[in-house]
């Protein structure tokens, strides 16, 4: 498998090997959290603020220049905003359109037509709140669609509670709202597929070599003829015993020898049926979704003669 896939957390389909590059990003992003949320007493943050920000919002700080550490922060800072929302205070650190501070998503996503014709995309909330009212600069006059969005925006802005305490970041990936490198690491690693079966497989009481075998089978990574062919293998992809294409299902369930072994087990244990393919095993046989998956490898309802886990072990 690709190293990047092996490094994914186990419930994302990998082996849970730590990706140090991703972890480093998650740890660097903790500094972004600190820059938003720590007070003046935190000397490191005060130093960074005075050296690099000088009362400008962090999100608008320059990407180039500064120490190696600061350049590192700048490289990954955009990932922070994927998980952060903001509690509006003195409004100086929150970008009006881009940051999530009113509702669940950024205003540029709720009001896309207004955003496309606004003059300053990075404008802060405090720069829009002038003399006790909302003043936002646009590049052209509104059509009917923009007017509709504008009315909605104004009614949404009416509910905003403004105060003079500093803005605060809230971390939405943790229930407590406080940044954790673990949640960021998982968020960056997430490839879009969450397989709960795999998590249960790793927590089950199977011997480790069986877990690894099932994990490889699940991801179609066992070195069968068909899989090896995909990696430019020059050999024969067919089963040497019967001549059918050699897949995982063929070796484990459909080949003549496999069918014989399954028939013996069925006979010996008095089962009503045996699995016919890997998908069926995961769906009906391995109780990866059941409450007792830690105790029994096969569900008891399929064991006709009252054999428990001990009988199969
Ligand atoms: Zn065969």
**How many helical elements?**
16
Count the domains: 3
Distance between the termini: 30 Å
Given as residue ranges, the uncertain stretches (5+ residues, pLDDT < 50) are 290-313
Structural classification = mainly alpha
- Helicity range: 40-55%
Main sheet summary: 2 strands, antiparallel
Instruction: Work out the number of β strands.
Output: 4
Describe the protein.
- The protein has helices spanning 3-6, 20-37, 43-53, 68-83, 107-110, 112-116, 125-128, 144-158, 181-189, 196-203, 208-218, 225-230, 248-254, 256-269, 278-285, 309-312; strands at 84-87, 129-130, 133-134, 168-171.
- With 313 residues, it is mostly helical.
- It has 3 domains: 1-81 and 179-194, no CATH class; 89-166; 196-312, no CATH class.
- The strands form 2 sheets. It has a two-stranded antiparallel ribbon with strand order 1-4.
- Strand 2 and strand 3 (133-134) form a beta hairpin.
- The model is unreliable at 290-313 (pLDDT under 50).
- Zinc ion binds at residues 239, 241-242, 244, 250, 255.
Gist?
The protein is mainly alpha-helical and 313 residues long.
What labels would you give this structure?
disordered C terminus; two-stranded antiparallel sheet; single chain; 46% helix
């Amino acid at each position: 498998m690709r190293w990047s896939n092996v490094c994914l957390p186990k419930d994302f389909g990998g082996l849970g090997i730590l990706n140090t590059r991703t972890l480093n990003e998650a740890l660097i992003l903790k500094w972004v959290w600190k820059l938003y949320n720590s007070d003046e007493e935190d000397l490191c943050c005060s130093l960074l603020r005075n050296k690099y920000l000088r009362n400008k919002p962090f999100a608008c700080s320059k990407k180039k220049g500064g120490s190696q550490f600061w350049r590192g922060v700048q490289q990954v800072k955009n990932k922070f905003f994927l998980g952060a929302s903001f509690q509006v205070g003195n409004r100086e650190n929150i970008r009006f359109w881009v940051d999530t501070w009113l509702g669940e998503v950024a205003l540029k996503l709720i009001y896309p037509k207004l955003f496309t014709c606004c003059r300053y995309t990075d404008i802060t909330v405090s720069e829009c709140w002038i003399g006790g009212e909302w003043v936002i600069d646009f590049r052209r006059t509104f059509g009917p669609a923009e007017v509709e969005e504008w009315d909605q925006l104004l009614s949404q802005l009416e509910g905003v509670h403004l105060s003079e305490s500093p803005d605060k970041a809230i971390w939405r990936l943790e229930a407590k709202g406080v940044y954790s490198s673990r949640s960021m690491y998982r968020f960056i690693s997430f490839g879009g597929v969450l397989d709960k079966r795999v998590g249960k497989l790793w927590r089950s009481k199977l011997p480790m070599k069986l877990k690894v075998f099932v994990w490889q089978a699940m991801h179609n990574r066992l070195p069968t003829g068909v899989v090896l062919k995909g990696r430019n293998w020059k050999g024969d992809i067919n089963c040497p015993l019967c001549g059918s294409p050699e897949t995982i299902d063929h070796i484990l369930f459909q080949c003549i020898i496999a069918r014989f072994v399954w028939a013996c087990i069925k006979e010996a244990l008095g089962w009503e049926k045996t699995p016919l393919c890997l998908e069926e095993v995961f769906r009906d046989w391995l109780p990866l979704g059941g409450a007792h998956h830690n105790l029994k490898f096969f569900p008891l309802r399929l064991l006709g003669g009252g054999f428990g886990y001990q009988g199969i072990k």
